[in-house]
Amino acid sequence: EMSPEERHFQEKVDAEVRIEPKNWMPEGYRKTLIRQISQHAHSEIVGMLPEGNWLTRAPTLKRKLQLMAKIQDEAGHGLYLYSAMETLGADRDEEIEKLHRGEVKFSSIFTYPTLTWADMGAIGWLVDGAAIVNQVPLQRCSYGPYARAMIRVCKEESFHQRQGYEILLTMMREGTDEQKAMVQDAINRFWWPSLMMFGPSDANSPNSAQSMAWKIKRHGNDELRQRFLDQTVPQLEFLGCTAPDPDLKWNEETGHYDFGEIDWQEFFDVLKGHSPCGIERIQQRKSAIDEGQWVRDAAVAYARKQEQKAKN
Ligand code: FAQ
After folding, report:
1. Largest Cα–Cα distance in the chain?
2. Atom 34 in ligand 1: which residue has the minimum CA distance?
3. Ligand 1 neighbour 35 (Cβ under 6 A)
4. Using CA atoms, how far apart are residues 11 and 5, in angstroms rounded to an integer?
5. Global pTM?
6. Which residue's CA is the closest to the ligand 1 atom numbered 46?
7. Is residue 84 lining ligand 1, measured as CB closer than 6 Å?
8. Rounded to the nearest whole angstrom, what is the distance from the C-alpha of residue 46 to the centroid of ligand 1?
9. What is this model's ipTM?
10. Which bin fits 273, alpha (ψ -120 to 50), beta or left (φ > 0)?
11. CA 196 – CA 107 distance, rounded (Å)
């Protein structure tokens, strides 16, 4: 049974009226948003690491500047999202602490290693490509601050996706055989993990039904996964590469691409922390905080000195 407040809330949501921070909301709605937005923010911040791994080894100055700009965008997205999360009453430091204690999730995709320069192309093209498909509908999320944050984020992800695709296209058109093989290898490794980004299939997605009723999510995980696949396969063919999926084929009847079974065991293993780089990523985050402590200490000491000077 819904309380009168809950009924009024649901009517607003059904009428596409945005929920704002000071409006009444069910506790479950607040909790769900804090969970999703914090996971999303953590993903942006942790997502800087696999690409940061190649900054010092970018092949040209232009590529280095592009990659640096992309990684800085991701930091910005993280800060944007933490701010949106704070409007729900959550504490940023506390949520980040939970990440560092390994108590909360971040996107499975960032637990995979980046082995070659072609991975920078594959991440931009596939990972940001998947992120866009997932985030465009979030611009219409019922919670105002999250929806508005997604507008700028999606614009920047589009640039990221193009820069990634252009890296791969350049390697395929102008590269040596070895470089072309590198592209195919990167696609082979990132293909399935990109499809896993959309989350478990609808039948195994405990949060989807309620999140869709609250219009936090606008589509099920499987629908968005299919949308991503349908737009990505023609781009794959244009590159002159293949997918590591023998079952991938156009289905005339459905008007969609059919694809093979996702290895859900791998996905759930990653969520449980059994992943190539999951622990390493958290470790890197923690040491970034620890190693930056002297900078924060110095900034505080300087601010105190200035304050003292102003008083004298
Ligand atoms: N990895 O019931 P559902 C980026 C968890 S893009 C890890 O379906 P929900 C940009 C899920 O949290 C990546 N965990 O859950 C970038 C839940 O666990 P919980 C970030 C996953 O929330 C690009 C459980 O499984 N994007 O960062 C994953 O309704 C390049 C059951 O799942 C977002 O976060 C996964 N892939 O739907 C940055 C988008 N999938 O909390 C750098 C916003 C599911 O119950 C470089 N989030 N889980 O313990 C969403 O749209 C949703 O949260 C979904 C999951 C669709 C991810």
Report:
1. 81
2. 40
3. yes
4. 10
5. 0.95
6. 47
7. no
8. 13
9. 0.98
10. left
11. 9
Q: Whose CA is nearest to atom 28 of ligand 1?
A: 199
Determine the length of the chain.
312
> Which residue has 């082979």 as its token pair?
188
Q: Residues 6 or more apart from 191 whose CB is under 8 A from it?
A: 126, 243, 244, 245
Q: Per-residue DSSP letters for the chain?
A: ---HHHHHHHHHHHTTPPB-TTS---HHHHHHHHHHHHHHHHHHHHTHHHHHTTGGG-SSHHHHHHHHHHHHHHHHHHHHHHHHHHTTT--HHHHHHHHHTT-S---GGGGS---STHHHHHIIIIIHHHHHHHHTGGGG-SBHHHHHHHHHHHHHHHHHHHHHHHHHHHHHHH--HHHHHHHHHHHHHHHHHHHHTT-S-GGG-TTHHHHHHTTS-SS-HHHHHHHHHHHHHHHHHHHT---S-TT-EEETTTTEEE-----HHHHHHHHTT-SSSHHHHHHHHHHHHHHTHHHHHHHHHHHHHHHHHHH-
Half-sphere exposure of 181 (CA within 13 A, CB side): 3
Q: Is 229 in the pocket of ligand 1 (CB under 6 A)?
A: no
Mean pLDDT by 10 residues, the chain (312 residues): 94 98 98 98 97 97 97 98 98 96 96 98 98 98 98 96 98 98 98 98 97 98 98 98 98 98 97 93 94 96 97 88
